[in-house]
Automatic annotation (TrEMBL):
Species in which this protein is naturally found: Paenarthrobacter aromaticivorans
Family named by the database record: Belongs to the YjdM family.
Name of this chain's protein: Alkylphosphonate utilization protein
UniProt superkingdom: Bacteria
Span of domain Protein YjdM C-terminal: 45-114
Signal peptide: none
InterPro entries the UniProt entry points to: YjdM (IPR004624), YjdM_C (IPR013988), YjdM_N (IPR013987)
Boundaries of every Protein YjdM N-terminal domain copy: 4-33
UniProt xrefs under NCBIfam families: phnA
Length: 114
């Protein structure tokens, strides 16, 4: 038990631990951002045209994206369903699965909400 970490907001477990940028509850598997916990308000993530994004949204890629390790790129107009907003590496704030490419993180500045 770590006294400096807050309890889980879902089940109130005191056995939370930190994994990267997230806090994790081992009892209910809930993950959350410690920044959202301390701010009292959630960080608003907007797409390229200013629409507010939320978990579960469907977005469309607005420009071709090169993918490391792949000979092909994600093309303009590719739909990405069921996104999850995260506090990712750099400014990559969308966690998703892209058909034909698999799981990856995208920047909200290269997508548009459908």
């Amino acid at each position: 038990m770590n006294d400096s970490l807050p309890p889980c907001p879902e089940c109130s477990s005191e056995y939370t631990y930190q994994m990267g940028a997230l806090l994790v509850c081992p009892e209910c598997a809930h993950e959350w951002s410690p920044a959202a916990e301390t701010d009292g308000q959630a960080h608003v993530i907007k797409d390229a045209v200013g629409n507010i994004l939320s978990d579960g949204d469907t977005v469309t890629v607005i420009k071709d994206l090169k993918v490391k390790g792949s000979a092909t790129a994600i093309k303009v107009g590719t739909k990405v369903r069921n996104i999850r907003l995260v506090d990712g590496v750099g400014d990559h704030d969308i966690d998703c699965k892209v058909d034909g490419f698999g799981p990856m993180q995208l920047k909200s500045s290269v997508v548009k909400k459908v």
